[in-house]
Amino acid sequence: MNWGQAIADAISLGALYGLVAVGIGLVFGVMRLINFAYGELITAGAYVLAYTGGWPAPLAILMCVAAVVALALVQERVAFRPLRRMGASPAAMLVATFAVSFLLQAIYLLAFGSRGQIVGTLGQLNSAFTVDGVDIRWILLVTTVTGAILLLATGALLNRTTIGLHVRAAAQDFRTARILGVRANRVIGLSFVVAGVLAAAVSVLYTVSNPLVQPQMGVPITIFALVGVVVGGLDRLWSAALGGFAVGFVYGMFGDLLSSQQTVYLPAVVYGSVILVLLLRPAGLFAPLHARQVERV
Amino acid sequence: MAEQDPQRRRPSGLLRAVGVSRSFEGLQALTDVDLELARSEVVGLIGPNGAGKTTLVNVLTGFDFPTTGRVELEERDVTRWPPQRRGRAGLARTFQHGHAFKGLTVRENVEVAALGVGASSRDARTRAHRLLGALGLAARADEAASVLPHGDERKLGVARALATEPRFVLMDEPAAGLTEAEVPDLAAVVRSVRDEHGAGVLLIDHNVTLILDVCDRIQVLDQGRTLAEGTPEEIRKNIDVANAYLGGSGRDV
Ligand SMILES: Nc1ncnc2c1ncn2[C@@H]1O[C@H](COP(=O)(O)OP(=O)(O)OP(=O)(O)O)[C@@H](O)[C@H]1O
Ligand SMILES: [Mg+2]
Closest ligand 1 atom, CA of B53? Predict the structure, then answer.
């Protein structure tokens, strides 16, 4: 393994975790809620791909996006909205997202078994092209470009459309936005839809390199992205994206350069650096130095 | 408050607090307060710090609920309505402390309010342009709201509340932090809300000159009770009398 390949791997893994971080950060911005069940959206998308293996790729991907967005909306409507109506505390809401996460994992286990399913969609992207003697798999390029496009599109949606303006106002001060006519459920619904689209994209891109789908597949992805979100700073989307990218990049880099004996220590190193970051820069690595701390988690 | 002849009151077009009391764990912030605000009138609400003015605004807008008493909006009992529902019914407010969307530009702050009540994006833009111009904020339209000085933030709050084209707007100390020279602009905006948009304005401020200048009626709160009520003339005499005894300057209430 050489540096060129390690960097290509690291950039594409960074783009992937950047997407996950933005999906989580978007919902957090509006609801002040970390949706721990975000990873199960990614898993759901992967199962859809596994079961649509015989379909033409565009159709399978479309199905994946539709199913994941639908599940994201089901999460919001069935679990989070009723709790919000009842005036549940932020802590109760957070616990509810854990419950949803475990419930979905149990459903996947019952429905699809523990052995795992294989995704073949876009498998041809594992072939490589050569630049300067470095073999680079197409999926790395596709992941990086898709990630960049989706992040830019999300940014444009938030900054250039009226509903995006509503989302940003609600993310600033939910209550004041509501009395000014911003429809809470519409804004929250939109953030879940966009988060769902991003999760589906991650399903498609991730399973090309990691085709084995298991019920717990989404958990480490969520945790790693959350690490990124916290390291980057929760209060702004771009800092969350950057944090996600950083964690993915570091993970990809070391994962390639270290031997497999050494990589078992990798999670410990990552979590160790997170504790360090939180001690030194509690508002996040990319937050302005004197930024006030994040209000509610 | 003297009972008015119900026949003379216009059937709609009133925001009313009826016998409102509010206590916070033993502290009686409001005691049996009545207040009426018709459309096309400006009512001043004055009183010393801690008199209960903000508490009354909170109760009227649904940010707080009365311990006893009720709130009516155009004949409907809205006492238990949440703020956003009252907002849709035409009630808007400004805040004594901040509440601007700091991460948005000044213009976006106003636009989002116009969009919230269903304006098209073009209408929202013209409305923001007009309001920011009227309040002297046009030059700052594209700045982040987070960098506004205190007085400008109040003005932004007024612009944002007016962008919803409310039927009633409650302004909690909008002139605090303004320079003497800026106060007449605010007074002009308050008058135009009444005269051109036909909205009712409840104006809270410690600047008695402004209050006496623009209000049609004035209600004085003290320690949670209505102390006096009347035309600016009558209240001015009361204040003069109070000053004669207390030796105040008459500038602040
Ligand atoms: N949420 C609350 N909990 C406890 N006490 C409160 C609360 N809100 C207001 N109070 C008390 O109620 C009283 C009235 O406060 P309020 O803010 O309504 O006064 P105000 O007339 O607006 O004063 P100011 O001119 O300083 O704005 C004060 O004694 C205040 O401390
Ligand atoms: Mg007050």
Answer: 21
